[in-house]
């Protein structure tokens, strides 16, 4: 796997570490570490800060900002590798998919060199946690995350969910669909200590199932036994300030706290662990804010 790093508009130095993956359904499941604090504190009033520092102070700020941005590839994008359909019985159906479904989905670069599947989120200032209210979470809580299998690839490749945690648990469910003309076996592997027991479901063409995902600090791996090349990842959040870039690299984060220093975190699956996400300090104003970013592979 190629090593990558992101360069923010403010040119803040950032550390990026790539990892090596093995062929097959999915990358090795990320080890859960107690000090893995890649995601923000945002667990609401009186929450522990996740860093051994006891309870945090709730961040008091107006949530009247909106971040709109785009992540673009800096330079010539990596060439997408074709998936190994070989002589598989379902090869004919597999080849009916979109171009991105017929290639490894690590690097999907669309219009204007926009990069898909980059996860962007905000961290509260050190020692503080985001105030969780019905208003700040309504957009995320009302979304229905969907993981489809239209041909022989998971779409989207990266799913981000607002699960909340503790007293703020959302109970949000992931809708897993098989809109393909062939059967799929969908496995979701999470951290059992976080309450994410192994999930394994055969889905015939046209079938779907809902599955509750709980907050954990590492990605949940998704794979299909019937098509060994299929893989995806689910990223959970205990606060609503996150987004995943679309096919052209665009993203929007609403209800952003304004007038206070926040940390912008950005992650691409080529980085490996979530804790390898880049970070930069940024203060956002009320109304629309533009945040354009670049990613570069070496």
Largest sheet: 5 strands, mixed
What is the terminal-to-terminal distance? 10 Å
Described by the principal axes of the CA atoms, the overall outline is globular
Count the domains. 1
Strands of the largest sheet, in order across it? 7-13-12-9-10
Spell out the blueprint of helices and strands.
Layout: E1 4-8, E2 57-58, E3 65-73, H1 91-94, E4 119-123, E5 128-129, H2 134-141, E6 146-147, E7 158-162, E8 173-177, E9 184-189, E10 199-203, E11 208-212, E12 220-223, E13 231-237, E14 242-244, E15 250-256, E16 261-267, E17 278-283, E18 287-297
Parallel strand pairs: 2-5, 3-18, 6-8, 7-13
Antiparallel strand pairs: 1-18, 3-15, 4-14, 4-16, 8-11, 9-10, 9-12, 12-13, 16-17
Describe this structure in words.
The protein is 4% helix and 32% strand. It has one domain (4-27, 38-297): Sandwich (Immunoglobulin-like), CATH 2.60.40.420. It contains two helices and 18 strands. The protein has a five-stranded mixed beta sheet. A four-stranded mixed beta sheet has the order 1-18-3-15. The chain is mainly beta and 298 residues long. It is globular, with a radius of gyration of 19 Å.
């Amino acid at each position: 796997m190629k090593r990558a790093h992101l360069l923010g508009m403010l040119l803040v130095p950032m550390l990026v570490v790539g990892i090596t993956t093995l062929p097959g359904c999915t990358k090795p499941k990320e080890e859960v570490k107690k000090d893995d604090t890649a995601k923000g504190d945002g667990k609401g009033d009186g929450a522990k800060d996740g860093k051994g520092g006891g309870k945090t102070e709730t961040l008091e700020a107006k949530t009247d900002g909106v971040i709109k941005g785009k992540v673009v590839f800096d330079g010539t994008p990596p060439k997408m590798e074709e998936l190994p359909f070989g002589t598989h019985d379902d090869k004919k159906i597999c080849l009916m998919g979109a171009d991105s479904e017929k290639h490894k989905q690590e690097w999907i670069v669309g219009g204007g060199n926009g990069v898909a599947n980059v996860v962007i989120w905000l961290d509260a200032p050190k020692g503080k946690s985001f105030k969780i209210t019905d208003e700040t979470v309504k957009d995320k809580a009302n979304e229905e995350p969907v993981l489809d299998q239209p041909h022989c690839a998971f779409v989207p490749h990266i799913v981000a969910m607002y699960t909340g945690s503790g007293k703020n648990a959302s109970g949000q469910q992931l809708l897993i669909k098989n809109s393909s003309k062939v059967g799929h076996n969908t496995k979701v592997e999470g951290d059992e200590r976080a309450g994410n027991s192994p999930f394994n479901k055969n889905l015939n063409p046209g079938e779907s199932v809902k599955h509750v995902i709980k907050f954990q600090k590492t990605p949940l791996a998704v794979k299909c036994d019937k098509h060994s090349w299929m893989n995806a990842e689910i990223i959970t959040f205990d606060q609503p300030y996150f987004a995943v870039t679309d096919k052209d690299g665009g993203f929007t984060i609403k209800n952003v706290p304004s007038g206070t220093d926040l940390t912008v975190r950005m992650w691409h699956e080529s980085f490996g662990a979530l804790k390898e996400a880049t970070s930069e300090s940024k203060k956002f104003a009320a109304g629309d804010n533009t945040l354009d970013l670049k990613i570069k592979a070496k």
